[in-house]
Amino acid sequence: MNAAPINEAEIDWPDEEERRTIARRLFTYSSHALGAAVQVDRIMVNHPNFKEALASCDRVFQLSRELTTQQGVIVSGPTGSGKTALIRYFRNSLPRSNLFELGHGALAVRLSKKPTVGQLVGGMLRQIRYPFPQVNEKTLAVKRNVLIDALRQKGTRLIFIDEGHHLMQQSRWRSHSEDGNSVTDCVRELMDEVPLGIVISASEELNDLEGVDQHLASRISAKHSLQAFEPGPVWLAFVRAFAKQSKAFDLSLIAEKDEALRLQKATAGNLRAFKRLVTEGVLVAADGGARGVELGHMHAAFDRVYGKDAGLGNPYVG
């Protein structure tokens, strides 16, 4: 699509501060800095809550094909608390096995805001690289059976359902919602017919799964919560473990108690915000030729991540 012609007379050209903001947005880091940041971005720390949730996923993965009792887990928490990171970590760390086809032992699908069975089935078919994943009303029943057969053949043992709270926001509901809906019916069918385990990653909205589908809720045994860190010994241990894992770039600054507390204040203990800010600090430091992160780098990183006009107050000032 061609852009409409611009009438320069209608444009208020930016003042000096806006020019600096634009320049910041267009800032490009060196390949060296990006390489250092990528290594830091890939660091994972198995803090206690993460470890417990991961152990539940391991348990469901192991038992889902061995026992007749259905196996399921809910992992809830606010955005940025590590739910999606848990899914990525579990799938990437699966060892090779003759029990399932490589890359298909655990799959993941993300629900839309108003999910339908067609979207769920089509998303799963794309995960297994089925050549004709499109689903409509006429092909739904056939594609549903194709999906079940394919998951059996590939040895899939676990499906992660991300954004699972959208199960509560579907456009079509039965008159008695506790009996479920078309999407939850499909999830239950996959659990029963393949069979396989289910891990539902969701916000706290889904804590009352019984009110959505009591039959699906009866198949879910474990519930775990991932939350932002409060300032304290657990946060300090987490930050120090993160810094210790950074072999290629020195993060010893953030491992100091006072700086770890400042970092908690800067990110409110949110893991996604933490990793974003620390990674940006590494980008700034590496691009400036430093081998480790210093206060000045974190100051610049905070401004670049949040913008000087966000009104948050840079905790690295002074």
How would you describe the overall organization of this protein?
The chain has 318 residues and is of the alpha/beta class. It has two domains: 32-44 and 229-306; 64-225, Rossmann fold, CATH 3.40.50.300. 46% of the residues lie in helices and 8% in strands. It contains 13 helices and five strands. The chain has helices at 16-25, 31-41, 48-63, 83-92, 117-127, 140-154, 182-193, 214-217, 233-245, 252-255, 257-267, 271-287, 295-306, and strands at residues 72-76, 106-110, 158-162, 197-202, 222-225. Strands 2-3-4-1-5 form a five-stranded parallel sheet. α9 (233-245) crosses α11 and α12 (271-287) crosses α13. The protein starts with 15 loop residues before the first helix and ends in a 12-residue tail after the last helix. The model is unreliable at 1-14 and 171-180 (pLDDT under 50).
Quick one: CATH superfamily of the largest domain?
P-loop containing nucleotide triphosphate hydrolases
- Biggest pleated-sheet summary: 5 strands, parallel
CATH architecture of the largest domain: 3-Layer(aba) Sandwich
- How many strand segments? 5
Q: Reading side by side through the largest sheet, how are the strands ordered?
A: 2-3-4-1-5
pLDDT < 50 runs, ≥5 residues: 1-14, 171-180
The CATH topology of the largest domain turns out to be Rossmann fold
Blueprint (SSEs and pairs):
Elements: H1 16-25, H2 31-41, H3 48-63, E1 72-76, H4 83-92, E2 106-110, H5 117-127, H6 140-154, E3 158-162, H7 182-193, E4 197-202, H8 214-217, E5 222-225, H9 233-245, H10 252-255, H11 257-267, H12 271-287, H13 295-306
Parallel strand pairs: 1-4, 1-5, 2-3, 3-4
Helix pairs in contact: 2-12, 5-6, 9-11, 11-12, 12-13
